[in-house]
Give the backbone structure.
Amino acid sequence: MTGWEHDGPGPGDAVLDDDDMAMTVGEVSTLLGVSVRALHHWDASGLVHPSRRSDAGYRLYCEADLMRIQQVLVYRQTGMSLTDIKGVLDDPDTDAVAHLRRQREMLQGQISHLQRMLRSIDTVMEIQLLGARISVAEMVKIWGTDWDPVYIEEAHARWGDTEEWAESARRKARMSRADWRRAHEETVALETALVEAMRSGVEPGSPEANALAQWHRRELNRWFEVSVSKQVLIARSYVADERYARYYDKRAPGLAAWLKDVIDAGARSEGVDPATATWD
């Protein structure tokens, strides 16, 4: 027993009636999973007061007190400070919804960050299990900020059960550091050529543009076998997926859409209708 539980009645304390529900601090701690220390702190700070007294002078929580504790717990789950919680509960003019909306946005950001970390860990595990000959840190060093393990995990979620994904994983696992550096250098060379061609006014469907489309397909074939139809479908994501569009347009504004047009026109020159392309 502590003095906190057994001091005499004070201002605002109601003496317990026979029909009132009342619980000791220990009982509330067990019921709601809140430590006794926290309950003491909340009482001292004015956040939650036990508002009843037993005939023997014990301070007890009534049903309204328990409801307030439950509200505190809900707000705490959002990351709100005890000071803000007290303000929300005590001030009828406080916009509780605005507080919760702000905290929800913060939590959503934390969730997204944790999900990215989890996907990165899963990707690293997968790379290691495949026996890759290069570490993730080395991949980042070679590819810079354009390479993110999260991208691989997102691709895995979409294509992980396909033979193309399995073949790509096998090829990557066999690649040495020199192979990865060469892949990066050749990708940069292709993208530089694409930018120069677009800026110089090369039209989709022209011989030069068709040659670039074939070069692009050869680069994709580094990872798995890519037909003309598959290339067309992959190119759709360059404009449909905001991240891919940002990747190409960072190199030159409009490059993503231009590249898709080049690939579509190149497909037509090889007898494939982009409108009916399938993943064959």
About this structure: Residues 1-12, 14-19 have pLDDT under 50 and may be disordered.
